[in-house]
Amino acid sequence: SKRIAVLTSGGDAPGMNACIRAIVVACEGAGHTIIGFEHGYNGLLEQNWRKLDSKKVHNIIQRGGTILRSARCKTFKQDASGQLAANNLDELAIDALIVIGGDGSFRGAVHLGKFWGGQVIGLPGTIDNDIYGCDATIGYYTAIDTAVSSIDKVRDTADAFERIFLVEVMGRHAGFLGASAALAGAANYVILPELFTDPESVLNEIQQQVAIHRQRYGHESYIIVLTENLWPSGINALAEALETRTDGEVRPVILGHVQRGGSPVSQDRILATTLGVQAVRSIEQGKNGIMVATAQGDVVEVALEETWQHKKTLGNTLTHCMLTMLNERHHWP
Ligand code: ADP
To answer: Which domain of life is it from (predicted)?
Structure first.
């Protein structure tokens, strides 16, 4: 049997608790010891940890956030921190560490691996789904649902007042959340990093489309989904520019951190549980320096470095669907 540790790091995501639970249950069943470090890599540096067992993870599968807390840890990039963390893990005689987080957390895991002889396993946990090598990350499905229910509500009020609404969703530098939320929310236009050319072209295209939309549907609502960190001068400047272009009211709505919260949907719970179980299995097989994830229905192991060396693309199917249903509808006869 092994001594295994787990931590959650970086931006939190719904389903992290479900993942912790699965790891604990799988470890207990196989006779491994399992401990949890608190506050991401900070807990590793400060020896802030607690023993976990299945009683302690009872009734958490449905909870958002993470019982181990998450955090950024700026100093972890330093060699001294990597060394300190390695010493602390050795002191506790830990054989393997599971890191649930995004690509920043994976970089941290690889950094630790330079100083520590134990096994390091990453599990993708972020609402942005921006990690190469996996189909979905823990938290992504819930964040889509949260954004979509907000868009549904925005449409009700937008219809009542015949306005244009601009809804900003998260995604960091990737358009997965924006694309999915825009499609599932039946938005009219989406502005994503992957489709972005330059501000002027986007403004021109929206201006044209809104004109066509008004001819066809009268002054019914028009909803634009925007990915965060993309519009050069910010969402308010974009709203103002669009007011001038469309001669109408444009209301910006920033969904913000509500997208990180909430009870995980079943898809995230199932993904989190699958990955937690598989992480323990990979540790038993002696694996090290890998992300455990699912791709095309199968469990895959991807070298941690690869997860940030390659850029995950939206894919042809999703892109084609978006262009057909959203941004290029004006090409229809
Ligand atoms: P996410 O995991 O969601 O991408 P961050 O990018 O904030 O979140 O990264 C989480 C933490 O991972 C950072 O606060 C830091 O402790 C650690 N980390 C990120 N990049 C590195 C790096 N290059 N070397 C060591 N640790 C890193």
So the answer is: Bacteria
